[in-house]
């Protein structure tokens, strides 16, 4: 029969392994990730295992969904990041996520998820396939007429004349 200490040690080993391998799952919300992560940290603390705040913060930030990547980067760059509580970080991220959801409600889908693509599209020139026009240029040359054919590429910049 196993001793209580052996069971406790085995449970601590399992929890430590779960912490080290902790990842978010596709489709999980920030709240779901936060709840699973803090539950795991609390169970580890009850077994006597704690991690430095900066490590737990960093690990949490690195496993967040892509749609909050911009906000998580700005939080990580703050000087006080290593001293912020996990709850404070979660609160900032949750507020950001709710603001993004509100933007989708107001402006419609695609404005938040494709923000990067929209910026790229708005800054990029739209170029259609070049069309070639043959232009004949006549130049006088000592009484002889020489015809020079030149190719001109025209580019459609996608600008509406009403702009």
Mean model confidence by pLDDT: 77
Major beta sheet summary: 2 strands, antiparallel
What is the tally of helical segments?
6
The percent range for strand residues is 5-15%
Radius of gyration: 30 Å
Quickly list its features:
alpha+beta, two-stranded antiparallel ribbon, 6 helices, 163 residues
Secondary-structure blueprint of this entry?
Blueprint: H1 4-20, H2 30-46, H3 53-62, H4 69-76, H5 86-107, H6 115-123, E1 131-141, E2 144-154
Antiparallel strand pairs: 1-2
Helix pairs in contact: 1-2, 2-5
Question: Your description of this structure?
Answer:
- The protein is an alpha+beta fold and 163 residues long.
- Helix content is 51%, strand content 13%.
- It contains six helices and two strands; from the N terminus they run H-H-H-H-H-H-E-E.
- It has helices at residues 4-20, 30-46, 53-62, 69-76, 86-107, 115-123, and strands at residues 131-141, 144-154.
- Strands 1-2 form a two-stranded antiparallel ribbon.
- Strand 1 (131-141) and strand 2 form a beta hairpin.
- The longest helix has 22 residues, at 86-107.
- It is elongated and about 60 Å long.
- It starts with a helix and ends in a 9-residue tail after the last strand.
